[in-house]
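Entry type: protein chain
Record version: 2
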Amino acid sequence: MSVLFPTYNRFNVAVAEAEGTTVIDENGKSYLDFGAGIGVCNLGHRHPSVQKAIEEQLQKYWHVSNLYHIPIQEDVGALLTNNSMGDCVFYCNSGAEANEAAIKLARKATGKTKIITCRQSFHGRTFATMSATGQEKIQEGFGPLLETFQYVPYNDIEAAKEAIDDSTAAVMLEVIQGEGGVIVGEESFLKQLEAICQEKDILLIIDEIQTGIGRTGKSFAYKHFCISPDIITVAKGLGNGIPVGGMIAKAKYRDVFGPGSHGTTFGGNPIAMASAKAVLQTVFQDEFLEDVTSKGNYLIKQLNEKLGNNPFVKDIRGKGLMIGIECKSDVSEIISNLIDKGLLVLNAGPRVIRLLPPLIVTKEEIDQAIQLMIEELAKKA
């Protein structure tokens, strides 16, 4: 019997090593990784420049705490703010912590407490971020949640207008819902929501935990929709496997988080910063992002051409290399079978196959993955 809490329904894969887009199990079997650690290893496993940066930092120092200046934090912060709407950064260790920071900043900045989120959203598993998450299955069994969150249907501007009142501090959402089914936001919904927030002095928080760091072909996914949020949160792809998160905000909120207002022991750790710096220097190049867009367009085009007529497939959607294949019934057996065939994929709810390949994936590997999916989904046609 395992000594670990059984909090995960694990697949029968015990990983021994990984490199690039390939994972190898303890039996020597190779897998093409179209999950990337749930959108974490955007540059693939053990990317040379990231590994080199980490190894160099290991030779210098590992931790001193945020009581002292850590110069590399400024380097990473400049890369984040120069490629976003933001001006200042708070570092932490995960997406949930980044969203916790955003919730605290919004409440402290406005003096109000209510935060509106969307149904089927996912923002984390701490008590505040679980309360922000619009999915009952995440909340079940934990007793009363924080009462200051209200959920509205995604892409429903009238419902959002109705929910907003004088106690509303912020609206918090993903521009592409990841765990909720790879649901893409409608630009009209997002732009109207931004205008309402600006009019009523409400913060607009965009959760970029899964969509950020090049995943959709732009540095951050909100840029697809011509909006400028007050806060964005990042994690997952930021460290390429080294735990790190961040909250990026506009300058007018800088002094709200003064000394003692918020903190973390490990946030901005120099090893995590070394990894993040190497990641951002690679991903935030125009040529790299254009390549992600090209491969994403190729992937969704091929999926539509080769699976669009399959009666079991309801919809194929996404942006960049964040794709959802919605099916007519549960996909858990399909995902298990694909893993048995050597393709690691994810679900996003019971009926959606989610594809999050490393951004370095090749078109040949995309073709290989599609062929395996064609074969498996043909059994359901």
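Comment: The CA atoms of residues 262 and 297 lie 41 Å apart.
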